[in-house]
Amino acid sequence: MAVAGFVRTLVGVGAGSSRALLGGGRTCLPVGPARTAIVTHAGAILPKPEKTRFGLVRVFSIVIPFLYVGTLISKNFAALLEEHDIFVPEDDDDDD
Predict the structure, then answer these.
(1) Integer Cα distance of 79 and 96 in angstroms
(2) Mean pLDDT of 72-88
(3) Distance of CA 22 to CAs 3, 33, 59, Å?
(4) How open is the CA angle 54-60-65, to the nearest 5 degrees?
(5) What is the H or E stretch that residue 45 is in?
(6) Alpha helices in the chain (DSSP H)
(7) Dihedral sign for Cα atoms in the order 12, 17, 22, 27
(8) For residues 70 and 77, what is the distance between their CA atoms, to the nearest angstrom?
(9) Statement: the pTM of the whole predicted model exceeds 0.70
(10) What is the structure's pLDDT at 89?
(11) How far is residue 87's CA from residue 9's CA, in Å, rounded to a whole number?
């Protein structure tokens, strides 16, 4: 922390203007779990982070059923609209 303060005063950047230089105060949040530390305070290297197993299988096991259910719902709703003459596509007779 003291080094960052020393560098700021050396460059001439005050504490208030550093937010403008670094993106206007916006924070960047990681999309997934992220580990920024790779060593302990004593200097030992931390073990590898655990991997999520079957990542694509989990994604497809959720996406495919919900896509199927969504198509069923939209198909039934379109049939309901057509049955009640709310939305009926016109038959275009293009004799060009």
Answers:
(1) 30
(2) 92
(3) 17, 23, 35
(4) 140
(5) none
(6) 2-11, 18-21, 55-83
(7) positive
(8) 11
(9) no
(10) 73
(11) 69
**The residue to which tokens 């096991």 are assigned:** 61
Tokens of 4: 């960052």
Asked if 11 and 1 count as a contact pair (C-beta separation under 8 A), the reply is: no
Q: What are the tens digits of pLDDT across the range 1-49? A: 454 544 444 444 444 444 444 455 555 555 666 667 888 899 899 999 8
- What separation in angstroms does the CA of 13 have from each of 4, 25, 27, 57? 11, 15, 20, 50
pLDDT at 69 over 50: yes
CA distance to 2, 55, 74, 91, per residue, from 88 (Å): 72, 43, 15, 9
**Close Cβ partners of 52 (under 8 Å, ≥ 6 residues apart):** 58
Q: What is the DSSP letter of 94?
A: -
Q: How far apart are CA 57 and CA 63, in angstroms?
A: 10
First to last CA, the chain: 77
Predicted local distance difference test score (pLDDT) of residue 18: 47
